[in-house]
Amino acid sequence: MTMSLRSWLGLVCSATALLVLGCASSGRQEPASAGASNAPATPHTSSASPPPASNDGHPGKAIYDRVCAACHNNPEATRSPGLDALRQMRFSNINHALVEGKMKLQAASLSDAEKRAVADYLAGAEQANDAWIAKMMCPADRRAVDVSPAASVTGFGFDPRNHRHLTQAQTGLKTGDFANLELAWALAFPRATMMRSQPVVVGNTLFLPVAEALQVYAIDISQSEPCLKWVYNSASPLRSGAAYGEIAGRKVLVVNGADATVHAIDALTGTKLWTQSVRLFSLSIGTGTPIIHDDRVYVPISQYEISVAHVDNFECCKTHGGVTALDGKTGEKLWTMRPMPDAQPVRDRGDGKMIWGPSGAPIWNSPAIDAERGLLFVGTGEATSEPATKTTDAILAVDLKDGSIRWSFQATANDIYLSGCDTSAVPPGAPPLKLGLNCPPPHSVNRDADFGASVVLGKLKDGRDVLFAGQKSGTVWALNPDDGKLIWRQDSFGPGSSLGGIHWGIAFDGERVYAPINFPNGFYPSPEVQQKEKPGIHGIDASTGKVLWTFAAEPDCSVERKTRLRTCENIGFSGAPTVIDGAVAQGSNDGYLRVFDAKSGAVLFSYDTARKFSTVNGVPGGGGAIDNATIVAANGQLFVSSGYGMFGQPPGNVLLAFRPKGR
Asked: Where does the record place the Cytochrome c domain (predicted)?
């Protein structure tokens, strides 16, 4: 169910409170101080019980209604967590977001007491230890971490080239097994709503970051039920998936935090080796999974200025993305690739205040490593102010040694975009959106056509290397990795949107590229566009770009399911696919897990994860949207994290394990 006209009118009518206090922000933002590092990781507590079902008399409610409701009661249109997701979060996470996290600017007008009151209203302030962890610790004979086997999943792309392809030998699963899967167990994490972080798999150990729990878990998966080998505690929320590699003879895990602090962890013991901030500006965040190569850690850097800069009292815009190379032994910064020069005043926006630029080019994805050419490849996002440089909405080839840009390929020029200026989020029949002084000029294409998906470096049957890139415009690109020249492009999947098209990832198995298409709620393109762009997944010939098969998703709006979901119609395929032997596993925004035959696209297995689960650790568990990158396999089991409480999608807090019946 998309946002109603009545809701849109309420959103427009509350614009003053919304723009000053709620979804947007005020004030200036400056570059972050160089070399800052995070505080040492310490144990923490979590909210023990949800807030009362009805707490209208709570003092935090009036603050929420005045400051927060216009956005969080309309999450599809505002890209924010819905009220249902906020009520399942931890007090500490909400308070952290308001005090020093992503909502700091939005909450700048609130006192500390008011911030705590809002967090208490939403989550409840009662604190309790994560007692389930002690009960789940492995017995002595399962406690040791064995890192002698080769890792099957080392990061976002599973391998340095980002193929997202696992073999039968690596997983213990063959194509024929997927039609015979059953749920083996569910593991839940208290007061989590977004299971966005992909695990690493080494032998019998699955290393899983859970961002909202501020923890990384080493989970033994060798037997019928899991147990914990160790738990790493962070002092602030995490965000990226895990990366794994060897640094100076030591096996190391790396995770990036929401505050762009990189954590290096000893894989054997879970102890902290070092932390390092890679924040370039106060609005920098860590999203893409780092990658380890030749004793270095390469870290992509994104930003959220795009979400806060549309209001008139914000000085727009100065933030850009980048990639920082760190010494893997110490965390010392070696170089930083910046895709554009620092912003300078560009023009008077009409009220005597200046628009600054260039800005933008966030890097949301995980790098692909080309050791032979000495390059890493990343995709960039939109510009957030003029001028839109040629490194926005582009693929960049970056020298591994010094961070210089060898070549760039721009897919969409002049894409200047701020989320509060997106007219495609206006429902039919609603009054036009009043654009602020920072909104993009008329000559911008205003598409937000990021490369959110990681670039894949593939090798074709004839021995040629090809770069494959999926864009939020809905286009799949094939480029020459030597110079970035176009080999082919496939545009038949629709025009995309700011959250649509190819969102988080594609996969490659040597013959085919698999491209999922997202079409989120809260966007209102023309009927012609809606007819052309269907949520689903496509199998594409990697040599020619020809579409070999297509699966188009349809909503499951049965009466019972409507009672469980905020909307049953948000069926986009936003997350990255996973290829296992001759099968492709893919999640959807409404919580369905599907496995397809890689050659034909036939559905081998389907399972609705958007429901409650009985869990092995006794923590109340429920699934939701399957988004970002959350599907891996090992030891004859398929592992899926379910829950993504953003954009109006259903939240959840479970890691699910499936195995063939009878095993």
From this structure: 55-126
What are the start-end ranges of the E strands in 72-156?
Answer: 127-128, 151-153
- Both tokens of residue 397? 């080839």
pLDDT confidence of residue 100: 73
Query: Tens of pLDDT along 123-135?
Result: 776 654 589 999 9
The DSSP secondary-structure symbol of 536 reads E
Which sequence spans correspond to the domains of the chain?
A: 31-45+129-660
Diameter over CA atoms, the chain: 72
CA distances from 284 to 114, 189, 256 (A): 26, 27, 12
Q: Does domain 31-45+129-660 match CATH 3.40.50.1000? A: no
Give the CA distances from residue 488 to residues 314, 370, 449, in Å, rounded to whole numbers and listed in that order: 41, 21, 18
Q: What is the DSSP letter of 18?
A: H
Tally of CB atoms within 10 A around 277? 22
Position 522 pLDDT exceeds 90: no
Residue whose entry in the numeric block shows the structure tokens 């594609």: 506
Q: How deeply is 554 buried, as exposed, middle or buried, from its count of CB atoms within 10 A (0-12, 13-18, 19+)?
A: exposed
Q: How far is it, in rounded angstroms, from Cα 48 to Cα 57? A: 21
From CA 490, how far away is CA 474, in angstroms rounded?
8
In the beta sheet, which residues pair with residue 377?
368, 397
Tokens representing 38 are 């995070």
pLDDT, tens only, 384-394: 999 999 999 99
Structure tokens at 412: 């969409």
Q: Is the pLDDT of residue 216 over 50?
A: yes
Helix (H) or strand (E) holding 274: strand 272-277
Contact 575, 629 (CB under 8 A): yes
CA distance 651 to 90: 13
Cα separation, 437 vs 189, whole angstroms = 43
CA distance 411 to 67: 38
| 132/619 Cα distance (integer angstroms) | 7
- Rounded-to-5 percentages of helix, strand, coil across the chain: 15, 35, 50
The secondary structure of residue 420, as a DSSP letter, is G
Closest CA to 352 of 399, 388, 315: 315
Q: Which of 259, 321, 281, 256 is nearest to 34 (CA)?
A: 281
What's the rounded Cα separation, in Å, for the pair 421 and 437?
A: 10
Is this prediction's pTM over 0.85? yes
pLDDT band for position 11 (50/70/90)? very low
For residue 201, give Cα distances in angstroms to 183, 368, 636. Answer: 20, 19, 13
CA angle 575, 632, 451 (to 5 degrees): 30
CA distance 299 to 323: 5
Tokens representing residue 518 in the block: 């997202």
d(CA 292, CA 295): 7
Per-residue confidence (pLDDT) for residue 393, from 0 to 100: 98
Q: Cα–Cα distance between 170 and 581 in angstroms, integer?
A: 9
The string of DSSP letters for 454-490 reads PPEEEE-TTS-EEEEEE-TTS-EEEE-TTT--EEEEE
Based on DSSP, count helices (H) and strands (E) in the chain, helices before strands. 13, 43
